[in-house]
Amino acid sequence: MNTSNAEFLATKGGQAATGPQSDSTSPTKQPAPEMIGAEMLVHALHAEGVEYVWGYPGGAVLFIYDEIFKQDKFEHILVRHEQAAVHAADGYARATGKVGVALVTSGPGVTNAVTGIATAYTDSIPMVIITGNVPTYAIGEDAFQEADTVGITRPIVKHNFLVKDVNDLAVTLKKAFHIARTGRPGPVLVDIPKDVSATKGHFVYPDSLSMRSYNPVIKGHSGQIRKAVSLLQEAERPYIYTGGGIIMAEAAKELKEFAELLGYPVTNTLMGLGGFPGTHQQFVGMLGMHGTYEANMAMQHC
Questions:
Q1: Residues with Cβ within 8 Å of residue 270, at least 6 apart in sequence
Q2: Do the beta carbons of residue 35 and residue 200 sit within 8 Å?
Q3: What's residue 120's pLDDT?
Q4: Pick from 178, 210, 242: which residue ends a domain?
Q5: What global pTM score does this model have?
Q6: Higher-pLDDT residue of 24, 3
Q7: What residues make up the domain containing 86?
Q8: 181 near 48, Cβ under 8 Å?
Q9: Measuring CA to CA, which residue among 60, 80, 77 is closest to residue 68?
């Protein structure tokens, strides 16, 4: 938006749309301080242990940037294009196993970020993308730099949120980080309209939460494990096929022990490179169009 922060607050009164909270939470016991949505975001990122935020400023995220530069809890890294912000956050998540965070503005800021978000979704990379949006009263009115962020990103995120009430912001951010890092990891997008980032509310960041519609499987099913063991024992041409999950789960040691115990040949995908020693006698190379002849032929005949 072209209006300044002061003009925006004066003309709109910092009002935001209201809506009910969903799912049960276990909030902290501390008194709930009052602050604007942008400040809530900064506190939430600190609570989640965020070290870096990659971003590019824009009108819809001005209040957020004002709060970012008032704090020293995490470092903001300015990029030259929104796509770079998301790719950098993706790379950070791959290298550390932590949730990467990117911040972009509305409209073209969001559309510029789509390729990076899709890449993270395809490769199951844990990320939280914070996007600005036009004020809630202008959503759907073809406002300046408005885009259907939720609709555009729905096919390429694990989940996305549109926050219309500042008092829902804290719990929504908690959900976003929880969803991004649990189960099969992936990018989660939180869309924050400009008036929500400027409106005051009570900040209560949950210690834990329970989501009725999200219960990822975090432990193997004993019956399925027994069936897999039986199939391995009966296999005539067994082949261990691994991917990026080995890297994200930091299970390279367990994979090596498993492979050596069975004595089966091992291959991996591009995402799985590094999960098994490339010089190991049981390793036949990477699969795929850029993989080795041996790995691909073995897969065809196993």
A1: 286, 288, 290
A2: yes
A3: 98
A4: 210
A5: 0.84
A6: 24
A7: 5-210
A8: no
A9: 77
